Amino acid sequence: MPRDDLALYLTLSPEFGGTRFGPFEGLEVRLGADRERCHIVLPETFGVSREHCKLIRQGDGGLILAAAERTAAVFVWKGDARRPVQIQTPTAVRPGDSFALVSPEGAKFTVELASLPADVLAQRQKHKRGRAGLTGEKLAREGWRMALARVWSIGPVGMAMRAWYLVKSGTLWQPRILITAAIAAFGYMAALAGSCSALKFKADALAVEDDLEQCQEAAGFAKGLGGSGIENRTFDQLAAGITANETLGLMLQKETALRTLVEQKAKAMAGDDASAYDWLFREGSGATGQWILWRERVQKSESLDEFTMHVLPYTAAVRKRTETEWNFWLDVTNKQSCLRGPARLTYRQARSLGLEGVMLDAYKPADAASLGADDAARAQLLIATSTEAGEPPPDPPPASQVAALANAAESCVYAAGDDDRDNSSKVMAVLNRELGREAAAVPDSGNNSAGMGRILKYYAADTPGNKYAGGAPLLDFRNGLATPLKDHPNGEKIMEKAAEAVARSIVLPCVGALDSPKTAEATFGRKADPIACLVLMYRLSQNAGG
């Protein structure tokens, strides 16, 4: 069937009514809450923007899906994919692909290219004008119209321009078919490059430069993934493939010092440190079950970006995680601290991020029995924690208890009472606010480093005196990842912990895919590519000591 006799249709998933919208014959279909501008109008109560996204039909038959603005979340299922990917740049889609707005559970549409209704085809055939109606002037005019349509594919001015030209052309026999046939060979990469070029015409010059750079980085990275065999891929390319997170790969490609640190952590994790994560692969382990519940809660967030949703659960996949609510680790000041709750937060970290009901705690290399009998010692430990957090000491000292850690010779002393760190809903609400798309002191959500900035902020919250919720933070990552940490006494440790979390998100799913394939999907939410994992783990094992 001639391409010009095909129209675009969008069908809602059954749980949203199953309505089939179309046929659409224009250059683009807009979805959102604005009745004046959008072809498909959704209630604002769904959380959609006034103009949320657009589906652009290319002359060669291709389709490009793009969010109308940076904060408009769009999730795409390619073919029969079980999990969606949140798109950050204009993305090619095909008939049969689906996309959802706001969240993976939001209004979901399936893309279809199908024949126009029979009455429309009959009317078109009746008035078909043939070659005699085609002139050089019309061909040139149509070429100019198409060029402008491509340039103005983003923004409100573009909508006005396209509307004007659609009214202006008016002819049923469209010369654009002859023009676009000449550029069909460029395929998807040409469409992506065209989208990058279009960004140059946005009104704000500074924003244009940033958007163009992000788009070009994404195009270059995607080209690298498609143009080399898996055995020849770089560490950042393997990481993107294993995690199904292109933004993670782009960040590693751009932040070379951070990439080196992540690779070092990954080597250690694949070598001598591997046994520290055995808890994650023990069948029936309570620690594994608790972590899976936390991962699922994080990955259902509607506020976090794709990178943060992927890496954040691995901040809680700490070494030798216990089945209780307690662990301990070296904090960003290089001192042993207690970790509490499903997210494994320190006292300082929780307070900085804005949890209200957080009870004082303190690590002590002593057995629980001896501490349980020494009220004065427990009180002094809790006073020291409040002082280090920049808070006045409690007066009088609170009643306290002792939790024995995995090693019977080490304990956590803690003030009696309910602690918000144990409440997943309260912790998630705080993380959505402080690490979400509108969070302060982190890169803009359209930046390829935005997610990593949020992971750094998460660990920087453990820095004494660095208050993010309602305070003036000492560490602000809006103008770069490494710059605010360069001369800070805790900067190296913060970067190290963030790098370790990223390394866990790459290596641990590979361990699951290769050693525990039957349970890996349930544990990690998806199966990592075993071939890519084999390549990665082989390289890491070859250099585990270097």
Describe this structure in words.
- The protein is 42% helix and 14% strand.
- The chain has 546 residues and is an alpha+beta fold.
- The protein has a 6-stranded antiparallel beta sheet, with no helix packed on it. Strands 4-3-5-6-9 form a 5-stranded mixed beta sheet, with helices on one face. Strands 14-16-15 form a 3-stranded antiparallel beta sheet.
Number of distinct helices: 19
**Beta-strand percentage range:** 5-15%
How many extended strands?
A: 16
Helix/strand class? alpha+beta
Main β-sheet, spatial strand arrangement: 2-1-11-10-7-8
Radius of gyration: 27 Å
Shape: elongated
- The proportion of residues forming helix, as a percent range, comes to 40-55%
Mean pLDDT: 82
Distance between the termini: 60 Å
How is the biggest beta sheet arranged?
6 strands, antiparallel
Q: Spans with pLDDT under 50 lasting ≥5 residues?
A: 129-133, 148-209, 215-227
Task: Summarize the entry for a quick read.
This protein is an alpha+beta fold and 546 residues long. The chain is built from 19 helices and 16 strands.
Task: For this entry, give a set of tags.
single chain; about 550 residues; alpha+beta; Tumour Suppressor Smad4; five-stranded mixed beta sheet; 16 strands; about 15% strand; elongated
Topology (elements, then pairings):
Elements: E1 6-12, E2 20-24, E3 28-32, E4 40-41, E5 53-57, E6 63-67, E7 74-77, E8 85-86, E9 91-93, E10 98-101, E11 108-115, H1 118-126, H2 136-151, H3 156-169, H4 176-181, H5 187-198, H6 205-227, H7 235-243, H8 246-254, H9 256-270, H10 286-298, H11 306-315, E12 326-330, E13 336-340, H12 347-353, E14 361-364, H13 368-372, H14 375-388, E15 400-404, E16 411-415, H15 424-435, H16 450-460, H17 491-515, H18 517-524, H19 530-542
Parallel strand pairs: 3-4
Antiparallel strand pairs: 1-2, 1-11, 3-5, 5-6, 6-9, 7-8, 7-10, 10-11, 12-13, 14-16, 15-16
Helix pairs in contact: 2-3, 5-6, 6-8, 7-8, 7-19, 8-9, 9-17, 10-11, 11-16, 11-17, 16-17, 17-18, 17-19
